[in-house]
Amino acid sequence: MIKDFNNSEYFINRELSWLEFNDRVLNESIDDDNPLFERLKFLAIVSSNLDEFFSVRVASLKDQVNAGYDKEDPAGLTPKRQLKEISKRAHTMVNEEYVYLNRLLPELRENNIKILKINELVKEDILYLEKYFQREVYPVLTPMAVDSSRPFPLILNKSLNIGLLLEDEQEEGNIFATVQIPAILPRLVKLKNKDGNERFILLEDVVNIFIDKLFLGKNVLCSYPYRITRNADLTIHEEEAEDLLIEIEKSIKKRKWGEAIRLEVDNNMDDRLVEVLRKALEIHRGEIYYIDGPIDLTFIFKLVSKNTKKKLTYNKFMAHTPKYLTKTKDIFKEITKGDILLHHPYESFKPVVDFIKKSAHDENVLAIKQTLYRVSGDSPIVNALAKAAELGKQVTVLVELKARFDEENNIIWAKRLEKAGCHVIYGLLGLKTHSKITLVVRKEEDRIKRYVHLSTGNYNDITAKLYTDIGLFTCNEYFGADASKVFNMLSGYSEPPELYRFYVAPLNLRERFYELIENEIENAKKGRKALIIAKMNSLVDPDIIKMLYKASSNGVRIELIVRGICCLRPGITNISDNITVRSIVGRFLEHSRIYYFYNDGREDIYLSSADWMPRNLNRRVELLFPIEDRKVKKRIIDIFSITLNDTVKTRIQKPDGKYKRVESERFTLNSQEFFMKNNISSINDSFIKTKYEMKGIFNE
Amino acid sequence: MCFFVIFNMDFILILYHLGKREKIYLQNDKWGDKMINKKDEIFAGIDIGSHSLKMKVAYVDKKGEISTLENLRRTVPIGSDTFSNGIVSFDTVEELCEILKGYKRIMEDYKISTYRAVATSAVREAKNKDYIVDQIKLKTGLRIEVISNSEEKFLTYKAIREQLDDYRRLRKEGTLLVDIGAGSSELSIYKRNKLIFSQGIKIGSLRINEILSEIEKKTLDFPKILEEFIESNIESLIAIKPRVKLNNFIAIGGEISVINNILKHGKNESKYINKTDFLKLYENILYKSNNTLVKEYNVPQNRVDILLPSMILFKKFINLTQAEGMYVPLVSLRDGLISDLVDRKFNTLRNKEFNKDIISSTRNMAKRYKSDNKHIRDVEKKSLYIYDKLKKIHGLGSRERFLMQIAIILHDIGKYLSFINHHINSYNIIISSEIIGVSKEEMRVIANVAKYHSKETPSLLHNTYGILSEKNRIKVSKLAAILRLANALDRSHKQKIKIKDIYIDNRNLYIDTYSKEDYLLEQWTFINEADFFKQVFGLSPILKIKKGGLVD
Predict the structure, then answer these.
(1) CATH number, domain B163-330
(2) Is the Cβ pair B72, A396 closer than 8 Å?
(3) CB–CB of B167/B188 below 8 Å?
(4) 3-state per-residue secondary structure call for B241-253
(5) Which positions in chain A touch B109 (Cβ < 8 Å)?
(6) Which of A23, A348, A509, A511 could pair with A503 as two cysteines, CB 3.0-4.6 Å apart?
(7) So where are chain B's domains?
(8) B347-386, pLDDT tens digit by residue?
(9) Interface subset of A 377-406, CB within 8 angstroms of B
(10) Residue A284 belongs to what domain range?
């Protein structure tokens, strides 16, 4: 029987699924197990997530609507319909977000941190703020009024503003005026401590107090904060661009002036004011969000990072470095002994940085090649690469400039690397290089040896402390040869080569997944055990999803651990009832991509930089590589069995696309905490089994 | 005490007393026996071919074992520029340089100092060849050698051994090796462990396609036209091919890897294709569109056009043999470049065998022109003896020795045409021939040495000599001077004189010989040749002939 898996009911819209993910993040803010600051931080994350979501995803949908594109997505929704559903869902979410915030702020006060409202200020504060306003704020404010001779000013994307109405003396009616809250000043203005309380007031409130001073001689009728989000989805027309670098520099400037797609206004804003903004920005009513509290919660990051009240944050946690790596002076020797797996952030990222550093100074190292996607500000990786070039090593760095929102940052250090003497290449036209790979070529006794580091995450020492990723060191010859070939391909020196072990998107990675899934289907048909376990950030690709449905309906058991978007709908009778979708949202951002195929007992495990998303499989250079070392394989299986048995941070996706926490039956297990506390490289099965009665996914 | 009759160039008889003066003993160095290189090294071979640019980087350990580090390939349509417009366009040269810059970087990655970058027919036949080579040098710093067809083949075949286990058996039994390039092809015949025939033809898969692309649109039976065209082009070749039994067939180049891939369903493990399988596939693809070939057989888009011409060529050639299938060692020019660099650095056994092949095919050529084999052998023996003894004096290496040997073998072939000015005839025949593994420039050296084996001596007034580089002019003079002395000693073609020893004393070169027969003609010729030798080496050759056998 051939089944049709194209039914739109079998798919969940990706934007709505993303919103569900953000909702899971939001839910962390009311999880009492999380310390207060962390809960507040989750609110800030929700807020900044929504910013990106609107300026990229919603913007793109709006573009589609404007262009008259009305094709349905796999879930059967037109762009217009999607916008409508998004608006509905986002409104509820934003409302909840502020309900939670207003629940947390009193708790913050109980902990002696107060964010004051204007009416709570005492005289002393007003005097202090007046001085502050005159000295620091006033000089950088640019009030702008709108009348017949002055058009509506351009409001900067994501800037916070105060909109106000002035009384017009000559004519009847009111004058609209706006003033931007300067982004260069701290959003939180610190007031003098009182009664052992730390006290703050928001900058927009300070401006509001003294708003009259900006419009002397005019009567300010009302004034409220607002903020707009614009279309920031820059599309670079590469064919026309001679130099990608210049093109991106240009488009960064351009980005500030996209179409408005969201308007956030203070809950109490005067309707007349809202109307002025709505008309001027040409925005729909559904795109206006009334905010019951401070607009843009990202200031919480600052508040939290400045404060060091230990009990309000997560327990400090030190990443573990395997002993053989701390003790050894020769990482090359250690890699030669066997593949090394590092599970970040539980295990330190330092060995990776050290590997580059060591390579820079090692006299036998000939060349270092690395792909860089997103790196941190003062990246030790970049420093080590620059150092290596200065020390005369041949250093080739593939810099991906098109990492969204990081371009400005990327260009700076790309230039720095070039200055140091590195050979910087910018990847293939039209394809983002998303693979994370490092190759060190070393001349040894009687051979040339290639050391390779591959990872599911970026070479970023900061995110390596927050994202769960898996990195692998190996000197497997096939991996080395493949790594060389991949770099030659990325440099444009060679056409896509035949590879021994790697699979590369967009060449054959997708096909490989098909083969692997098909193989499980074949085994299931023969009545053999068939199991797929896949962990990724997002599952969107309709063709892969259809393959999974086919697998499920043929009896393949499929365990998915998808942190973010999941367009697959589990639990549909005869379609996806063998599929379970889990999502773990917790202290660390789940980021590793691991793919497991039972393969009649062979247990093939692959790591990848790619999610099951069309963009990863079609438009990016991604790598998929097998795990061949037995010990490493075993560790990954252990990691899976802990992860799949998580009862604390795991949510199970229901057929309606909503997520529910698992009900703990026999034990509670927080997988992230488990990995923090237990050095998994030293534990064994019996430990796991005696401590927790594991559901034997692997041993049925 | 014996009496020697000694001549110097002034016809002055000198009495020589053995042992009175200090002699310089000349060491008889054996060439090519020692390992020159004992260190491991990384080599790079770059091949600027007709439709792609390729590079191989290989590590060679102390024993000379090769392991590949990098294998790169980028399509650049150099050949379609040359074969249809006569020149390589500016844009293509630019593109070429860009990729070569990348190759240079990879060479720097491995700190490679020994490399060979060669360009074949697409560049060789381009009218702007010099410009291309110069641009590459300027923009990338890479030295490009434009190699001849025969050099290309020679280099490529160097890599066969590493691929075919029973290569030795094939050489013995009789094998036709056909190598189809984009612009030209080569036929070689091995029998009894020797290369007995080798001939290049200016017909290759891409060239055929370029030439006939005009007609393709005008006929529905393009394959038929292809066959006819190919047949007419190889007719003359078949006529001169030696009539020996050939049991084996080796196929190289010409998308044979693509063909093998199709037949082996992507599993390119076996290096043998059955003739019946091959013919079946041929019938199958004959009238299929390019699109179908790409889809059905997974033929790479850039190879699909030249697949059919290649298959027709292979079909034609395998039919010249009794072979039931073809060996398909997947060798490439860049593999050969690496093997060659290894041979040079390590001076391997294989190198000697390849030189032997060249010598044996040269001897076959001499035989074809009915040269006096006994004379050749004698002059060869004497020249090489003198050459080896004078190693310190002439300062030349094993390659030059090899070139001299070829020149000697061929020096009289001009007689086939006419005895009048036969030295010029020899020159003309050599210069228009190809010898596998010998470059065009080296052929010029050989032809000149052969030309100056008697009568005329090198002069800048001669066109043939004047066009050589200064370095090669000196080579020609040195080699010709030695050849002339040796040739003089067999002036009568009767092998009357045997050399016993050679030594230098007081700027004289004494050649100690003995003879049973009348040697007046040799003696007289020798004296005539001595002058030129002195001009070249600053040594006066003095012939000492002991009458009779080797009796002290």
Answers:
(1) 3.30.420.150
(2) no
(3) no
(4) CCCCCCCEEEEEE
(5) 366-367, 394, 396, 441
(6) A509
(7) 5-29+348-547, 41-147, 163-330
(8) 666 677 778 888 888 898 888 888 899 999 999 999 999 9
(9) 394, 396
(10) 117-312
